[in-house]
Amino acid sequence: MKKLFLVSLALITMTAAQAQLKVIPTLKKGMEKVYETKASMTLPGQPTINMISDTKYTVSDATADGYIIDVVTTSFSSDAAKDNITGQIMAAAQEMAKGVHILIATDKNGKPVKIANYDELSKQLNERGKQMIIKLYELMPEVKSALPEEALKEQLLESVAEEPLFKSMTGTNSPLLLFGKTIMTGAQEEIVNEQGLNMKRMYFVNGKDVTTNATLSMSKEQIKKLILAQMEKMMPEQADAIKAQIDQLMESGMLKLDAKETTTFKLQDDFWPKAWNTEATNESVGQKNVTKTTTTLK
Known about the structure:
Elements: H1 2-18, E1 20-22, E2 32-42, E3 49-62, E4 67-78, H2 85-97, E5 102-106, E6 112-115, H3 118-139, H4 143-146, H5 149-158, H6 162-169, E7 182-184, E8 188-192, E9 198-206, E10 209-216, H7 220-234, H8 236-252, E11 257-267, E12 273-284, E13 287-297
Antiparallel strand pairs: 1-7, 2-3, 2-13, 3-4, 4-5, 5-6, 8-9, 9-10, 10-11, 11-12, 12-13
């Protein structure tokens, strides 16, 4: 029996050791990849919002130290209703980035390291943010009383600040997520997503299929600090009242915060994904939303 157990353990160890993948993509100056993304978001008490976009990835430069990948969203459409504030704000954030070239610098293995043109980019996005706010207020005048201009501008521009934008461009909705990594089944990493949430991500490898599971990894104190920071930003007049009651509110479950995300990539021989699917669930202040995304290489 002991011998059988040791043999089984050796087989398990051998299988785990084989279930790893070194993702070094083919990158050559001038090569292009175009991906179509279809996403749906379900919000409590509202119709599902559907969005479709095309994003082009072009290797615009290659050096001994790494590459520059030019990323541009060439088209975006949404069926968010005119009176759906959340949907319209999301659509505005996407419209801000449409047609804007974001240059992602990588190391020699293709791992993204930074946004190479952020200084120039931030000026474009700031100007577009102002235009999007004007458009939103024209479309939904009632938004102005719920979200004053400065608060709305901050919310829009936060999503395209350098760190969250880089995370967004290289996260689970990007073909660049796995580039330059050696991935093993069971491997874990701590990440901070573009919403500023601490997550723990685990990898599973099956040939050239890679699945990632990410779950919220935050203490009660970290969640409390995050909630209060958001309240002070968006609803400063109510922040003190919330702060005085926050422990009771958290115990009651009214301020529950949770996040889960599962993504499966199907990689080609050149390690660019042929397709991937993501399902993300976020719960905040008793409101749960589910986003499902399917992206395919055109």
